[in-house]
Amino acid sequence: MPNDNNQQSRNYRRKPQHESEIVSEFGKLQPQDLQVEEAVLGALMLERDAYSEVSDLLKPESFYDMTHQMIYAAIMALAAKQRPIDMLTVTEQLRNDGNLDAVGGPARISELTGRVASAANVEYHARIVAQKYLARELITFSSGIQSKAFDETIDVYDLMQEAEGKLFEISKNTLKRDVIQIDPVINEALKKIQEAANNESGLSGLQTGYHALDKLTGGWQNSDLIIIAARPAMGKTALVLSMAKNMAVDFNIPIAIFSLEMSNLQLVNRLISNVCSLESEKIKSGQLSRAEWENLFARIKSLYSAPLYVDDTPSLSIFELNTKARRLVQEHNVKMIIIDYLQLMNATGMKFGSREQEVSTISRSLKQLAKELNIPIIALSQLNRSVETRSDEKRGKRPQLSDLRESGAIEQDADIVCFIHRPEYYTHSSENAEGQNIRGLAEFIIAKHRSGSVDDVKLFFRANYARFENWDENQNLTEETTIGSKINSDTQPAAPEPANSFTPPPANVDFLNDKNDNKPIPF
């Protein structure tokens, strides 16, 4: 008389699951291999250590057969409790879960262990199961997007955001990279050390033009996520623009800036103010004197053909950023990306219980992108209001890691966390309590440095040009004093003429053409 449990197992496996999982709209069977799934489950119950070889590759949904999903879930439960995994313990776990009859009873478990002789090939078979699952996920994803694309009531741009979000979720399930022996990593490290030794700057990373900062960090390092945070009006955007100008114009390092807060025109106007030492109000109004027009035309040439790329897409999603960043690196060899600022980004297409969870996903994705592209990524971030309300006499208004806004994951994911603090802004005085001159002083505070030390770096903030410069301890800082730096190394413009001496711009002057270089500007 046939065994009822065996008959039940065979009948269950013949029973179709959800039809959308069995047959696609193209009339093809979904990717699956039941024999390989059985071989994996049998191997896991044969050898005690087999589960550790596949635990990072498989989850219950990876199996196509519903009964196989239940059995693997029981194996996972046993592993979590650090109990032995064999035919008897799996049977008992299934009984406790209430799934033993559903999978075909003890005879079905015995049948699985009898199908394999050893667990020698369990990892290879597990990878096949994982790949089949990933293929099914892609089919389901593409079918859903295709169906929605025919629905004219759905905004196509919203659909694209949703598609990017779901594809991102699927991509996180791809197979993990294999571990490698340390020798090639040592060789790569030695290569980097030799490159740094041969570099005139002595830096292993990208130089920013701020000497004290470069000395402390060794330059911005590849694959690092760098967070620069501050309260409003501290000069976050001014700092990264000054840095981008130094790197792109002075050192010819390709830089990309994603500005979610300012338009491309506003961004370039601030760059012009920075480079040409012209106040932003005059650039907006065009009320420039003769000397200022000459200065503008003389200096703005340095911005042309600079490897500086700007994008002002509002409410940029992490998925759009990934696509654009990969293209910039591939097509323009971009060496660093700047994002202004992190809290304005979103992860459209994914569901979150809170904004904090969304920000956590964004920061984690930025770190993954930095590693994938092997470039440093700088993300600006806001600080919460606790900085303004703090009355601690010892620390004053200096920001600290707990002030990072919306998510502690930002601190966790970042390799470097920096703050900008300008004491003059809070004291409204040119001197601190000790009588030291703090006019223009900007403290660049490195509060977390995964690969180095933490310290403060002094910079000089020239507010009328929204520009950060190297700090010089020996300078007598006054409003009229100009602090020498790489960004301001050329001749300063002549003193501005009286406000009522406005001169209209010169007409028909091709100031990029060399033939005009030695000719006076026709006013």
The name of the CATH topology of the largest domain is Rossmann fold
CATH architecture of the largest domain: 3-Layer(aba) Sandwich
Q: Which structural category fits the helices and strands? A: alpha/beta
Q: Helicity, in percent?
A: 40-55%
Kindly provide the radius of gyration, computed on alpha-carbon positions and rounded to a whole number of angstroms. Answer: 31 Å
Largest sheet: 9 strands, mixed
Span between termini: 110 Å
Order of helices and strands: HHHHHHHHHHHHEHEHHHEHEHEHHEHEEE
What is the number of strand segments? 9
Strand proportion:
5-15%
Give the overall form: elongated
| Low-confidence segments | 1-24, 476-500, 514-523
Strands across the major sheet, in which order?
A: 3-2-4-5-1-6-7-8-9
Quickly name the level 1 CATH class of the largest domain.
Alpha Beta
Can you tell me the CATH superfamily of the largest domain? P-loop containing nucleotide triphosphate hydrolases
| Average pLDDT metric | 77
Please tell me the total number of domains: 2
Number of separate helices: 21
Could you describe the 3D structure shown?
The chain has a 9-stranded mixed β-sheet, sandwiched between helices. It has helices at residues 4-14, 19-22, 34-46, 50-54, 66-80, 87-97, 100-103, 105-113, 122-149, 156-171, 183-198, 211-217, 236-250, 264-276, 280-285, 290-299, 318-332, 355-373, 386-389, 409-413, 423-427, and strands spanning 225-230, 255-259, 308-311, 336-340, 377-382, 416-421, 441-449, 455-462, 467-470. The protein starts with a helix and ends in a 53-residue tail after the last strand. A hairpin with a 4-residue loop joins β8 and β9. The protein has 2 domains: 4-154, DNAb Helicase, Chain A (Orthogonal Bundle), CATH 1.10.860.10; 204-419, P-loop containing nucleotide triphosphate hydrolases (Rossmann fold, 3-Layer(aba) Sandwich). The longest helix has 28 residues, at 122-149. It is built from 21 helices and 9 strands. α5 (66-80) crosses α6 (87-97). It is an alpha/beta fold and 523 residues long.
